[in-house]
Every structure is written in structure tokens, then in C-alpha cells.
Amino acid sequence: MKSIIVLLSGGIDSAVLLWLSKREYERVLALSFDYGQKHKVELKYAKELAKIAGVEHIIVELPSLKGIKGSALLEGGPEVPSEEYHKDTPPITTVPMRNLIFLAIAGAYADAYEIDTIGIAVHSLDSPYPDCRPEFISAAESALTCGSTLSAKRKVRLKVYAPFLGMTKRDIVSLGVSLGVPFEKTYSCYRGTEPPCGECATCRQREEALKSILL
Ligand SMILES: [Zn+2]
């Protein structure tokens, strides 16, 4: 059976990936992380999205990330800024090694559930985060394959499915529309307020992408 673990944050990109995976795979398991993020409210949205999509959903608790200092995305860190990101500099909202940590844990679930593919909704074109780059994804896939018991048993690669590499946010929203993604059930604000602040970079990116497609 063609199976995938999808990293689901509750935002637009991972919601589109979830719906795309539902179309492409027979078995889908969604994985979300409670890692000390200020916008922990996103987990409520992730749960609802997984329910609507009709897929199994696991929320993994990672209390240790709260001790990593300096990221505006984590509780106790600096304030989430309103300015746009600079294209070539990792922003203050970077959580060091976040995608590597998430992929490593997903790899452990992949071994335990005997699922050989992990889906991640990174898009490099307009993202300044180092762990969203294609070279990171390809290196992570190699590392996961080397460390995987499933891979050793079956002599296959543990694949990292990142279909949005090279796509813009607008492309992703456009795909989501064709897949029937319920965007109103997604959440993007890094400040974690309800309703969303409308000022932080992720709120503005979301607004722009949705407006360009849906209006
Ligand atoms: Zn916001």
C-alpha cells in the first residue's frame, strides 16, 4: 500500500500537502508537533484539518525545544516582528534545526508504522529558512535512509516528499483550490492570536497569496 506521513502544522502549505497526499497515497498519517511555539493554537487547526481529511493524526510533544533561546517563534523568545523577511538572511523566527528535528521524529514513526515516505511542505522560492532548501531536503533523505530500520530491512530509500520545492506560495494556494482545501480552517499567524494579528510576515504572506487566487 502506498503510504505517507505528512508533517501538518495547520497552515496553508501543509494543508495543501495533506490534500495532495490524500490524492496520491492510499494511507496517510498526519504528524504535528507541540514544540513550545507561541502559536500553539495551530494544533487545534491541524487536528480539525486531519479530521476533515479523514486521516489518522498524532500530536508529538517536544517540551525540550522551549529551552532553545533566541527564536521569536518560541515561548519566552523575542517578539515576532512585523517587517517582511529579507530574502538572504534567516529571520528571527527561525527555530534552529526545526525541520531536521521534525524529520528525524517522523523517520522514527516511519520505521514504527512501516511507512517509507515522509511529506513536508517546504517551499524554497520565497522562503529564507535554511532548512527549507532543496539541498537540505536531499541530505535529510540520505541521513534518514541510512538510519532507518525499515530501509535496512526492505533495501529501499526512506523518501522525503517535498513537492512544493520550487513553487511559490501563490502556486501552492492555486493547487489547494483545485484540491478543495478548506483554507478557512487553516491558521498561519506566528503571534498565535485569535483572530490572527494580520501584521506578522506569515499573516501578510497568507493574505497576499489567498487574495491573488481567491478574489
Ligand atoms: Zn500574525
In short:
With 215 residues, the protein is α/β, with parallel strands linked by helices. The chain has seven helices and five strands.
What can you tell me about this protein's structure?
The protein has 215 residues and is α/β, with parallel strands linked by helices. It has a single domain, classed as HUPs (Rossmann fold). It has seven helices and five strands; from the N terminus they run βαβαβαβααβαα. A five-stranded parallel sheet has the order 3-2-1-4-5, sandwiched between helices. Strand 2 (27-34), helix 2 and strand 3 form a beta-alpha-beta unit. The termini are far apart. Bound molecules: zinc ion.
Short key terms for the protein model shown above:
single chain, 215 residues, Rossmann fold
Helix content: 40-55%
Strand content: 5-15%
Low-confidence stretches: none
Distinct small-molecule ligands in the complex: zinc ion
- Mean of pLDDT: 93
CATH class designation: Alpha Beta
Shape: globular
End-to-end Cα distance: 39 Å
Structural class: alpha/beta
In CATH, the architecture is 3-Layer(aba) Sandwich
SSE succession: EHEHEHEHHEHH
Over all CA atoms, what is the radius of gyration? 16 Å
Total DSSP E strands:
5
Biggest sheet overview: 5 strands, parallel
SSE order and pairing:
Blueprint: E1 3-7, H1 12-24, E2 27-34, H2 42-53, E3 56-61, H3 98-113, E4 117-119, H4 134-147, H5 149-154, E5 159-161, H6 169-179, H7 201-214
Parallel strand pairs: 1-2, 1-4, 2-3, 4-5
Helix pairs in contact: 1-2, 1-6, 6-7
